[in-house]
Design goal:
The protein has 180 residues and is mostly beta strands. The protein is 0% helix and 38% strand.
Length: 180
């Protein structure tokens, strides 16, 4: 996997869901140290009491307001206990059900307007419902496609693939894929 250089625009407390804003009179409870999809304990249980509407928790932790036309993407690992929708205020959302198990949610190619900051949000399935899910590794980055996770505030240099000097087509097949 060769990836472009990028930075996770969320600040460091976003990874542990500290400072996320509750909406619609909901009250969040965040429990760290939960089992994650890779056998560790990097996940957090995110529970929000039922509010008046559907949006119950927003990240508000991205310091960047995308310039007009600049594309952003966001990703987060989610395991729903109760059906939940992961959305952004720049458009796009993905619903996750309990039957899905762990799911890498990606919302790609959102276009900035020069006014609205890029935010990740948890939404109840219906107005007046509670949010209950496990979450880990939230990321918001500049670019049309999501890349693999890097810690909030950290950046990654662009990676470069180097082929060996001797590449004999008779000895095998090389398959390349490019997402444009």
């Amino acid at each position: 996997l060769v990836e472009r250089g990028t930075q996770n625009l969320l600040n460091i407390t976003a990874e542990v869901f500290v400072g996320w804003a509750a909406f619609d009179s909901s009250t969040p409870t965040i429990t760290p140290g939960q089992a994650d999809p890779f056998g560790g304990t990097a996940a957090h249980r995110v529970q929000c009491t039922a509010g008046a509407g559907t949006t119950t928790l927003n990240s508000y932790l991205s310091p960047v307001v995308p310039a007009p036309g600049v594309r952003h993407s966001t990703s987060i690992w989610i395991k729903a206990v109760a059906d939940v929708t992961i959305g952004t205020n720049l458009g796009g959302s993905v619903s996750v059900t309990a039957a899905d198990g762990w799911k890498l949610v990606k919302i790609e190619g959102m276009t900035g307007d020069g006014v609205t900051s890029s935010q990740l949000r948890f939404e109840a399935a219906t107005a007046g419902s509670a949010v209950d899910c496990y979450a880990m590794w939230p990321q918001i980055e500049i670019g049309p496609l999501c890349t693999s996770y890097i810690a909030p505030g950290a950046s990654r240099s662009a990676e470069v693939e180097t082929l060996p000097a001797v590449c004999n087509p008779a000895e095998g097949t090389m398959i390349m894929r490019a997402d444009v």
